UniProtKB/TrEMBL annotation:
Database matches in PANTHER family: GLUTATHIONE-INDEPENDENT GLYOXALASE HSP31-RELATED (PTHR48094:SF11), PROTEIN/NUCLEIC ACID DEGLYCASE DJ-1-RELATED (PTHR48094)
Residues annotated as domain DJ-1/PfpI: 31-223
The keyword Kinase appears for this protein: yes
Entry keyword Calcium: no
Molecular function, one GO term: kinase activity
Family named by the database record: Belongs to the peptidase C56 family. HSP31-like subfamily.
Entries under InterPro entries matching the protein: Class_I_gatase-like, DJ-1/PfpI, Prot/Nucl_acid_deglycase
Protein name, as recorded: Dihydroxyacetone kinase
Coiled coil stretches, renumbered: none
Organism: Paraburkholderia terrae
Superkingdom of this protein's organism: Bacteria
Amino acid sequence: MNQQTANPRIRPALIVLTSHGTKGDTNESTGFYLSELTHPLAVFDAAGIPVAISSIQGGEPPIDGLDLSDATNERYWNDDRFRAAIRNTRPLANVDPSRYSAIFFVGGHGAMWDFPMSADLQRITRDAFESGTTVVAAVCHGPAALVNVTLTDGTYLVANRKVSAFTDEEERAVQLDEVVPFLLGSTLVARGALYQPAPAWTRNIVADGHLVTGQNPQSATGVAQAVRDLVLANAARV
């Protein structure tokens, strides 16, 4: 998928997608939000950062936001290598976090159901974060991955750390506040996070050390740029 030759000195970034395809008890489909994958990929590809794609269950995850009027979506969607990578994602249970320079959790409403409940996700995220050398990042509903992650001392990973995520206001605006299993912003606050919301649908990227989060699809590129900068800085120190 890389548009430039990947830098062999840089460990790959792992992008994690939801495998959940329905919005609660409704018949409405969901999944990962395509632009929250393609726009970060464009950043990583341009920087020569190798990328691997995983999902909770592996195989081909469900897709939401299939907007091909978005030029970046269209470019990747028409790329056979990208489509093959999406069809054959690695199950998260088979991932060794020490192999990666960053772990990036893509949003989409599906993430609200399977990200928080995955023991593999919690283990991998804890190990990656505690390594001190792997960036942990998430955008939009992707921070649902963080709500149940505890560190080895028993504290929540997000406790006393600055984070952003899809806001309760934005959830109400899309009329899914009564459908999702919990409100993401409120839950992060309950976990002790220093939650940093911005006005609805505005770009909002928050970095706290090697934890990077973004509020909504508008923030996906900015989160990836922050991850890129941290990854390249870490590689330069090796």
